[in-house]
Design a protein that fits this description.
five-stranded mixed β-sheet, alpha+beta, S16 Ribosomal Protein, Chain: A, about 80 residues, about 20% helix, globular, 2 helices
Length: about 80
């Protein structure tokens, strides 16, 4: 099953997350199928470079969004 989820990177106390399409059986730092954007919770514009059309394409193919990403998209008014 494919999931669209966050993968943490960055330094201690200043995280940056990558939004990834990844097989749910892979580890959090495992190889991803596609990088769909970034989320920086400390920035003025937290979600950058999001590929909305690619996220929608993955969801149409059966990928699931995590609860965290659903709430982030809703909070930042990103509709699929």
């Amino acid at each position: 099953m494919i999931k669209i989820r966050l993968s943490r990177a960055g330094r201690p106390h200043s995280p940056i997350y990558s939004i990834l399409a990844i097989d749910s059986r892979k580890a959090q730092g495992g190889t991803s199928l596609e990088n769909l954007g970034t989320y920086n919770p400390t920035a003025q514009e937290p979600i950058k470079g999001i590929k909305v059309e690619r996220v929608a394409a993955w969801v149409k193919q059966g990928a699931l969004l995590t609860d965290t990403l659903k709430s982030l998209f809703k909070k930042n008014k990103i509709s699929l």
